[in-house]
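Usage

Read records sequentially. Each one opens with the input sequence:
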Amino acid sequence: MFYDLNHEYGDLDLRVRRERLATAAGLGFDCVANARVVVGRLSSQQAYRCPPEAVSEQDAFESASPGIKRALQMCQALGAQRRSIRQLTRITLVTDDVQQAQALTARNKALEAYDIVSVQPQNDAVFKQACTTLDVDLISVDISGRLPFQWHQKAMRRALERGIHFEVCYAGLLQGGAARRNAFANAKRLTQLTWGKGIIVSSGAASGMAMRGPHDVINLSTLLGLKQQQAKEAISKRCSDVVRHGSQRQALKGSIRIETSPLPAMDIQLSVGSSQSGSESGDGEKGVSSGEGQVQKRLRIEQKQ
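and closes with the structure output:
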């Protein structure tokens, strides 16, 4: 199952969004995320007011480009059923203010309407905050330009421990000049610091023309330093982990940690008495004394041997 978790919603025309969805289905993607991007302060009213709306699949295929329509018709002629594509909702906060980033917490009820919550840090403070404390599913990095923050491996390791993933978009790799050079350099550095773990690759495409098929994205990801298996997981398993992390964020408001510890050792001392004292005692004591007498007799035999 292949994912593309960054279809910017924005103010794009409905026809463009329909064509992009049809292109994603025609290329072989099974799930996409319609992303709402908010720059600066995120208010609850704003988040409630503008969740991305799903695009009708029927309208999307009718609005597809001629090439995509021919591909879908060929698949149907070969007996393949029309691919049903899942659409998720996502919100991305772009900020350089620590106080503004505090809106991305579990206490913000407005975020419950979104399947995926991500942040795009614009300075060191917000980047460290996102890695260590914010309740997000993704940390999106714009690799096509000069990074506004420094990589902090310790904070990044903490993010991976919390189940947070890092996202890079290959749209910058398809550009020319400085944008492509920056994209390759930043992506390779991210891969080195994370050992290729916890990275997903999305399109970030504004139109269907900028999208590539899953296998092309896998080959492109290997140029960023990812191994072949890691590149495949970057658009499949890792994305599934992001969606699962978002579901857990929506469902769980807290957690309970239970630790088990072994019981303290108990010293039990049994007084060994003679058979006469055992006979003078009650029935319970007689059983114990006779058993202890057998143990003593066995020990004497072993000592003689």
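Summary fields computed downstream for this record:
- Confidence is low (pLDDT under 50) at residues 265-289.
- The chain has two domains: 3-251, 275-304.
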